[in-house]
Design brief:
This protein has about 70 residues and is largely without helices or strands. It contains no helices and 2 strands. Strands 1-2 form a two-stranded antiparallel sheet. It is globular and about 35 Å long.
């Protein structure tokens, strides 16, 4: 998030959940996800918790792509 590493799960391992917290100010923020798959269970979920919801997948309507 904004060029800061938030979660590092780079290794060969079973399916697991890692958490991190970072407060964000209102406005646009860059999100970059590097994904590595080496067999085993194939799953990647990116979730968030905002002040008015429980943890959920990030809704597509709050994301956009920019180059």
């Amino acid at each position: 998030v904004d060029n800061e590493l938030i979660v590092d799960n780079d290794s060969d391992h079973v399916l697991q959940t890692l958490y991190a917290e970072r407060g964000l100010k209102k406005g646009f923020h860059s999100i970059k996800i590097n994904y590595f798959q080496m067999g085993g269970g194939k799953k990647l979920l990116v979730r968030w918790k905002n002040p008015v919801s429980d943890i959920e997948e990030i809704p597509a309507d709050v994301l956009f792509h920019s180059e």
